[in-house]
Amino acid sequence: MNVPSSTDAKAGRVIVFDTTMRDGEQSPGASMSLDEKLELAKILEDMRVDVIEAGFPIASNGDFDAVRRISQIVTESTICGLARAGVADIERCAEAIKPARRGRIHTFISTSPQHRDHILRMSPADVIDAVTGSVAHARNLCDDVEWSAQDATRTERDVLRRCVEAAIRAGAKTINLPDTVGYSFPAEYGAMFRDLIDSVPGADEVVFSAHCHNDLGLAVANSLAAVQAGARQVELAINGIGERAGNCALEEVVMALKVRGDALPYYTEVRSEHITRASRYVSAITGFPVQFNKAIVGKNAFAHEAGIHQDGMLKNAETYEIMRPEDVGQGASNLVMGKHSGRHAFREKLKGLGYELGQNALNEAFGRFKDLADKKKTVYDDDIIALVDDALARGAERIKVKTLRVIAGTEGPQEAHMTLVIDGAPVSTVATGDGPVDAVFKAIKALAPHEAELRLFQVHAVTEGADAQAKVSVRLEEDGRIATGLAADTDTLVASATAYVNALNNLFTRREKSAPEPMTASGF
Fold first, then answer.
1. Do 423 and 404 have their domain in common?
2. What is the pTM of this model?
């Protein structure tokens, strides 16, 4: 898979640039471990994403290692690292992407008066000089350089033209014009691209890129307007994660171009059948649930409850569905799963739901499925998804929940009798708390002492019915490190205990691989 040249792109090919691991990870609480990033990189490569922005190498040793390791294992996609307009940033980025078969340095500087005056304290002339120097230095270290004008949509048009011209002259191959604060609207954003493409010398020799934030809910509309105006790269994130209201959602742009090719004569090389797999993995490792009505990947995206809709669907699916669930990896198979289902049927069900598990992971998931089937009369697709997501989100299991008994009710204090297995040795305690969950968490803290603060505790039912599984998300923070744990069980308290323990395991793993505190790169 090769990223097209500017000439190829003009034929209608749109380059998909994924920033889930860089801008997406800047969502508060969305920190990913090295192993999680490596797995996500493989998923994105399987999807045929053109460019993977793997991190901000100078931000921390952890980010540097992630970009470098991803550069070593990914052979098809271009691996990109982010750098500010400074020599140290650019050289650190060049070092991180050095092993990549195809590497890119992505350097940026703010251009708007708001950022020039209050952050950089630089004049327009100073910014233009910085653009020239930074892009030229990056170009000496890497053939593929992208330059971004942070807060482009609030930049005076003349200043923006001069900055873009300077970047092109210095050797940038891609020019990114971000709507950093989600301020623009489609007609305005498209007009900006048309103006610059028509007026800047050398614009016909580079690829223009759109990077939109979703503060006004217009990220997808703005990105498509940019494509119509001549942009041939879009910068996206799985599930739309990112700072504040998030980035433009990869799945929505890809499917908009695929479904509406009649009105949008552009295309990507993304294998859309991998979209749901990527969405679920990102949700599992970040602990950010996908809203039920989320376009393309939400639980209800292909659900029909109204009688008139169901009648239409039975007659012809095209009456109410503009794409097939199979096209995005939301399996259409309807295997009924229960305690008599075999391993082969379970594997096929997982494939239909967008999961490809190795043999060991399959065996573990199948065992947990059998345990669940003994508890529940009907095992729904969402039960299986919760079960697999729980397994995907687990780190090295130094700590395991062995037994839990909770005394709760109107007469307190509530009491938790717990046994954990820590590094192979069982330990037990009894703890009381202000409610059963508080008692459970205090018991865990007594057995596995730590200073982490609980930042999120979230419970929702996976399916309907009194025997529904509870899916619990727990987020812990310690010394700037954030770790998330997920778990699902028909017993809410067991799920809560397991999620807390999973978060602790992930936290301990990150503690062992600790790096200096990361700097924050502003999302474009």
1. yes
2. 0.78
* Cis upstream peptide for 413 (omega within 30°): yes
Residue count of the chain, please give it: 524
15 Cβ contact list (under 8 Å, min separation 6): 3, 4, 9, 50, 51, 207, 209, 232, 233, 234, 268
Residue 80 belongs to a domain = yes
The domain boundary, picked from 338, 371, 391, lies at 391
Q: Are residues 331 and 478 in the same domain?
A: no
Please indicate, yes or no, whether residues 360 and 466 belong to a single structural domain of this protein. no
* Same-domain check for residues 452 and 346: no
C-alpha to C-alpha distance for 41 and 21, rounded to whole angstroms: 9
* Long-range CB contacts for residues 60-67, cutoff 8 Å, separation at least 24: 60/515, 60/516, 60/517, 60/518, 60/519, 61/515, 61/516, 62/34, 62/513, 62/515, 62/518, 63/518, 64/92, 64/95, 64/96, 65/34, 65/515, 66/21, 66/34, 66/37, 66/38, 67/93, 67/96, 67/97
Domain end point (choices 374, 391, 408): 391
Same domain, 173 and 54: yes
Angle between helix 492-512 and 436-447 (nearest 10):
30
Domain assignment present for residue 1? The answer is no
Supply the DSSP string of 257-326, one letter for each residue.
HHHTTTTS--B----GGGHHHHHHHHHHHH--PPPTT-TTTSTTTT---SHHHHHHHHH-GGGT-SS-GG
CATH number at residue 439: 3.30.160.270
**H or E stretch at 404:** strand 399-407
Q: Which residues of the chain have pLDDT under 70?
A: 1-10, 303-315, 317, 320, 331-336, 377-378, 390-396, 512-523
pLDDT at 299: 76
pLDDT in tens, 97-147: 999 999 999 999 999 999 999 999 999 999 999 999 999 999 999 999 999
Q: Is residue 3 situated within a structural domain?
A: no
Q: Identify whether 2 is part of a domain.
A: no
Residues 34 and 138 in one domain: yes
Q: Show Cβ contacts of residue 387 under 8 Å, excluding neighbours closer than 6 positions.
A: 365, 368, 369, 372, 469, 488
State the pairing for strand pair 399-407/414-422.
Answer: antiparallel
Euclidean distance between CA atoms 50 and 129, whole angstroms: 31
Quick: pLDDT tens for 452-464.
Answer: 999 989 998 877 7
CA dihedral 36, 41, 42, 44 (to 10 degrees): 120
Domain that holds residue 86: 13-286
Number of domains in the chain: 3
